[in-house]
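Protocol step 4 of 6: record predicted structures for both targets in the notebook before any analysis. Target 1:
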Amino acid sequence: MFEQLDDRERGPQVSRAMTLGILAAYMVGAFGGLCIFIVFGERPFGMQVATTIIYTYSAFWYVFFPTRGLLEQYSLHDKTVQRRIPLLLAIHCAFLILIVLGETIWFSMKPHLPSYWFDEHGKRGGPLYVFVVIGSVTVIFLTEVLISRRILSRGLREGPNESSNVPLPIDKL
């Protein structure tokens, strides 16, 4: 029973300085994202451009740095991580294409949707249309982050080789 209480101490630890740094990066990203959406929001394809910028910024932070529930961090200086970057970029581009294509189709459907998609609905506080767009982008984003983190963790678990910065265990020397 008491072993479960110590599980928190066995996992990777994140320092307070790193926590504050990551919080600052998220706050800068949130404020910057708001500004980008305000600047690009009314231009043709402005929402897609703003989404692409913010999505890429957020994906970088959520993939490589620790977050709540995903405490592993991956250093860009590690050779194993560097070898996975082309695959991660290809995956990121595929997800960006999915989001931009989905938003473009969704925004083109907007004039043809019934009016209840745009009405305020009770306690939810916003139109159904906005919840569908934000919800679908969030699901796609979390899927990409989990896939990318799994690729990185699997690469580091495969073990060190001659081009990795991870030291060999003593019995392998």
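Target 2:
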Amino acid sequence: MTLGNISSSIVLIRAHKVLLDSDLAALYGVTIKRFNEQVRRNAIRFPADFMFQLTAAEVESLRSQIATLKPGRGKHRKYRPYAFTEHGAIMAAMVLNSARAVEMSVYVGRACVRLREVLSANTELAQRLEELEARLSQKVESHDQAIAGILEMLRKLMNPPATRAIGFTSGSDK
């Protein structure tokens, strides 16, 4: 499994970047049942900021986004999945204590760091884009005023004021 695969498995739930238990179980080379069994047996190692169980609404939202149900009887999960933060995923590797789990925990850590770097770069880019928009807005506003002034001058030139004849006129010319 590559960093890209792990990064694509990371989802945002409750403002946390998490990996689902099914993704971690596949990553660590164990069944979901065994994975969750080991987590339950070591529940003290998984505080709320390491792991949480998804609500029914969150599960439905994920199903609509990534189609987690497989066709056929008995092919789908009976229980709501657990979500693991970066620290929870690494702790799960320590609980499983297999060579593959330890190796994959390094990949998980690297994927999370890479994701943080990408998000940081996007935040900086968004800030620079906002600054550019503000400067352009100011320039457009000043250009609009200049164009409005030019148009006003052109209107005045196109409609010159009525002029009176120069010189003496007789009463009959009026």
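Step 5 preliminary note on target 2. The mean pLDDT is 77. The two ends are 99 Å apart (CA to CA).
Proceed to step 6 after PI sign-off.
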